[in-house]
Write a structure and sequence with these properties.
This protein has a single domain, classed as NAD(P)-binding Rossmann-like Domain (Rossmann fold). By secondary structure, the chain is α/β, with parallel strands linked by helices. The protein is built from eight helices and seven strands. Helix content is 35%, strand content 15%. Helix 1 packs across helix 7.
């Protein structure tokens, strides 16, 4: 029975998101990882994702890759974004393509479109100012809107989405990019903005699970990773339709 499970590789498996996915998906899939840090009791290769040769063996024989390897802070300087995150992202796509992996799920970020939050009504919502606003009638940022990165971290996430599109078109690799919202260790809002942007651990696991199971015909997609928050301003209708994403949690439960 174990042999029938899809083989799923997680790059950057030791981080917060990697830990949530290891716990949430471990019973359903045959998970393995690649990371610079060893994870006791987990099937993994110790390697640096900025070095393609060192991580390539981890990709062999895998069905799906969940690419998390990068410096996770949205405050990183351009030097780190360029030297580390650009290489990690491109190498994951390259290694997956060369190994015959069917699908890469790329951890993009809401910071690829973060500058929209300077505009009304989003600027009021992230500040927790709701006077005169109806959550049912606010516009929601769609994945078809132009990218508007809010810093080097967001720039590289937008690069990753573009690179994913290239590998999909050129090499037939299915690539799904997840613009992940606010995910923290407590899985609850910790600032006014989080009441709009929270992605709980449960909803993250469900979203990634739906991406793994998505039809082979889905060659490329960009989806926002956000819970069913009353004040969310990112559109998830495409993920609801294409992969059956149905987030269960609402940040208002912690208001």
């Amino acid at each position: 029975m174990a042999d029938e499970k899809k083989k799923v590789l997680i790059t950057g498996a030791s981080g917060l998101i990697g830990g949530v996915l290891r716990e949430g998906l471990g019973d359903k899939y045959q998970l393995s990882g690649v990371d610079r840090h060893i994870i006791e009791g987990f099937d993994m290769l110790v390697g640096d994702s900025t070095d393609l040769d060192s991580i390539q063996p981890a990709f062999e024989g895998k069905d799906v890759v969940i690419d998390l390897a990068s410096s996770p802070s949205d405050k990183i300087p351009w030097e780190t974004a360029y030297e580390n995150n650009v290489r990690c992202t491109y190498n994951a796509l390259q290694a997956a393509s060369e190994a015959g992996v069917k699908r890469v799920i790329f951890a993009s970020s809401n910071h690829a479109t973060g500058m929209y939050e300077n505009d009304s009504p989003f600027s009021n919502i992230v500040a927790g100012r709701y006077d005169g606003l109806d959550p049912q009638s606010i516009p929601r940022i769609e994945t078809t809107w132009p990218v508007r990165p809010d810093g080097p971290y967001g720039i590289v996430k937008a690069f990753g989405e573009a690179a994913g599109r290239y590998f999909s078109d050129e090499f037939g690799l299915s690539v799904i990019c997840l613009r992940i919202g606010t995910l923290n260790s407590d899985s609850r809002p910790q600032s006014p903005r989080h009441f709009a942007t929270l992605l709980t651990h449960r909803d993250l696991v469900h979203l990634v699970d739906m991406c793994i199971q998505a039809p082979d015909e889905l060659e490329f997609g960009i989806f926002y990773g956000v819970s069913n928050n009353t004040w969310r301003f990112w559109d998830i209708s495409n993920s609801e339709k294409l992969i059956g994403y149905q987030p269960q949690d609402n940040a208002e439960n912690w208001r």
